[in-house]
Amino acid sequence: MRTKRISGIIIVLIGVALILSSFYIRSRVRSGRQEISEAQSTVSKGKKLFSVTPITKEVGKGFMNSVQKKINEATGKADSYAVLATWFQIGGSVFIVLGAVLIYIGRKK
Asked: Any idea where the domains of the chain sit in the sequence?
């Protein structure tokens, strides 16, 4: 009985750690998305600036395409971390419930 209770406590702690990790990941994703948004607005301003003449438009494309590619990669990475945070929350919740059940089963009767 005692091992079930100890196992339950450990599982609950793991669940809490997963949920806290998901909150941290979400906050980092939020700040990353803000940086991506700022970079995207800067690129949009640059595109407008370089689209005055056909020559500057071609030069601007060369600069902006590489930056836009990096922005798109960062957006994809942020999306994957957001999914990871969601799975951490789901897994953490499941661990907490399982741990609570083990603690309940392992209690003295």
From this structure: 2-106
pLDDT tens for residues 45-89? Answer: 877 777 777 777 777 777 778 888 899 999 999 999 999 999 999
- Nearest Cα neighbor of 16 from 8, 5, 4 is 8
d(CA 39, CA 50): 16
Which has the closest alpha carbon to 89: 97, 77, 100?
97
Write a three-state SS string for the chain: CHHHHHHHHHHHHHHHHHHHHHHHHHHHHHHHHHHHHHHHHHHHHHHHHHCCCHHHHHHHHHHHHHHHHHHHHHHHHHHHHHHHHHHHHHHHHHHHHHHHHHHHHHCCC
Q: CA distances (Å), 68 to each of 42, 43, 64, 74, in order? A: 10, 7, 6, 10
